[in-house]
Write a structure and sequence with these properties.
CATH architecture of the largest domain: 3-Layer(aba) Sandwich
Structural class: alpha/beta
Order of helices and strands: HHEEEEHEHEHEEEHEHEHEEEHH
Number of domains: 2
CATH superfamily of the largest domain: Periplasmic binding protein-like II
Bound molecules: glutamine
Radius of gyration: 21 Å
């Protein structure tokens, strides 16, 4: 049986070779000129759907990087906590998903130089008695599964952590009174608050986090190319231009 499969594969490869449509064999011609990008399009303004298309700051950044290094992009939308795994398994070349650089993630992937700085924030219902981070003790906190907000919530004394697949689902649970607060990244928080006038953001911020592009551990060549490209985009003002397109000044 195995032999038969091998034979089939071989013939398939040979077929491709003869027809001249592949130069790289079983792992696909696309790997050479197309950057497979893992993201989770539930995170405005970094990645979200608009008219059935995935758009946002991260998407524009990765497209600019790819253009600079002479590659096309193929965006793959998946659950947030699959993004790193998808790079590790080689299914995706890079991940861009508002990914904060963390020690834990660095064990599994490499990170490019950071392209943005941000913070976690707390969202509560209007008129909530939670007015500071300290008030979160012993309360129920909603987070998006596997995010740095999830890690922070875990550390809050006595708190119950409710995990959702999408940030928006945590916001809905908050508005329905199922949970007392949501911990999430600042820019998506601003978007969610602007869309729902019954919730608000606390003024107090958590520590600063940095977003970067995740790349496979063995793919140092790509890492170097991406870093060089990000430097260029920073220096030329392109990165700022992209951010300004999606984030209106406070
Ligand atoms: N910055 C957070 C993290 O890396 C959240 C990212 C997200 O939800 N897309 O965990």
């Amino acid at each position: 049986m195995k032999k038969f499969i091998k034979y089939l594969l071989l013939t398939a490869c040979l077929g491709l070779f003869i027809s001249g449509c592949s130069s790289s064999g079983a792992d696909g011609a696309s790997a050479k000129d197309t950057l497979i990008v893992a993201t989770n399009a539930e995170f405005p303004p970094y990645e979200y759907y608009e008219n059935n298309e995935i758009v946002g700051i991260d998407i524009d950044i990765i497209k600019a990087v790819a253009e600079d290094i002479g590659m096309k992009v193929q965006i793959e939308d998946m659950a947030f906590d699959s993004v790193i795994a998808s790079i590790q398994s080689g299914k995706s070349d890079v991940g861009i998903a508002g990914l904060t650089i963390t020690e834990d993630r660095l064990e599994n992937v490499n990170f490019s130089i950071p392209y943005t700085e941000t913070q976690q924030v707390v969202i509560v219902n209007e008129n909530s008695d939670i007015v500071a981070i300290d008030d979160l003790k012993n309360r129920s906190i909603g987070v998006q599964l596997g995010t740095t907000g999830d890690i922070f919530a875990e550390d809050v004394e006595g708190a119950t952590v409710e995990r959702y697949n999408k940030g928006m689902e945590a916001i809905q649970a908050l508005r329905q009174g199922k949970i007392d607060a949501v911990i999430i990244d600042k820019e998506p928080a601003k978007v969610f608050v602007s869309q729902n006038n019954d919730i608000e953001m606390l003024d107090e911020d958590f520590v600063v986090e940095e977003y970067a592009i995740a790349i496979g551990k063995d793919n140092t060549e790509l890492l170097e190319k991406i870093n060089a490209s990000l430097e260029k985009l920073k220096d030329s003002g392109k990165l700022k231009e992209i951010a300004d397109k999606y984030i209106t000044a406070e």
